[in-house]
Design a protein that fits this description.
By secondary structure, this protein is an alpha+beta fold. Helix content is about 25%, strand content about 30%. It has one domain: Peptide Deformylase (Alpha-Beta Complex), CATH 3.90.45. The mean pLDDT is about 95. A hairpin with a 5-residue loop joins strand 7 and strand 8. The strands form four sheets. Strands 2-3-4-7-8 form a five-stranded antiparallel sheet. Strands 1-10 form a two-stranded parallel ribbon. The chain has a two-stranded antiparallel sheet with strand order 5-6. It has three helices and eleven strands. Bound molecules: nickel (II) ion. The site of nickel (II) ion has 6 residues, from helix 2.
Length: about 200
């Protein structure tokens, strides 16, 4: 299974709305497998198809690298939508398409997501904490939204320097990317917190 390059800011595919999946075939199954491998190798816990250059409404999530969620199974969500949400909570987010940028974002605390699984059966998942957070972050990707879009003007301003470097392709990233400079990770350097 190949590792796919991840599109980083400001690649246009990240700002486009992905289209609903209409059925399952070998190519789609293969893409989800490649997305898992790509996400795992980049120390990610969630990945949307836009981030690997595909405009299909596909999200993969695997929180099992984190201590709190280590017993949770990986998830594939096709055509996911939030059908219920409750409360509000602030949590720090990072994004594989926005390397080296993290910030605190306010979002719903508990959500119910309706989606199709890899057998094209409708499922509903009610989640809070990190799982809810990752699902909302990834569904945003499918709609062309990036996490910093939720920040107020002051926080946005503080990120401008890094965003401009990314925009200019002047950022080193330790996983294969489109739109920045790929410099393989030094295995002696510990990994930072996981990103989405
Ligand atoms: Ni992301």
């Amino acid at each position: 299974m190949p590792i796919l390059p991840i599109y980083v800011y400001d690649q246009p595919v990240l700002r486009r709305r992905a289209k609903p999946v209409r059925g399952i075939d070998g190519a789609l199954t293969k893409l989800t497998e490649d997305m898992f491998e790509t996400m795992h190798s980049a120390n990610g816990i969630g990945l949307a198809a836009n981030q690997v250059g595909s405009l299909q409404r596909i999200v993969v999530v695997d929180l099992s690298v984190t201590e709190e969620w280590k017993d949770t199974k990986p998830l594939v969500l096709l055509n996911p939508e939030v059908v219920r949400q409750e409360g509000e909570v602030t949590m720090e987010e990072g994004c594989l398409s926005l390397p080296d940028i993290r910030d605190e974002v306010d979002r719903a605390e508990t959500i119910t997501v309706r989606f199709l699984d890899l057998e094209f059966r409708q499922q509903e998942l009610t989640a809070s904490g990190l799982l809810a957070r990752v699902c909302m972050h990834e569904i945003d990707h499918l709609n062309g939204v990036l996490f910093f879009d939720h920040l107020g003007p002051l926080k946005r301003k503080l990120l401008n320097g890094r965003l401009n470097r990314l925009k200019n392709g002047d950022m080193e990233v330790d996983y294969p990317v489109v739109g920045a400079i790929y410099v393989p990770a030094d295995p002696a350097v510990p990994k930072g917190p996981p990103s989405e």
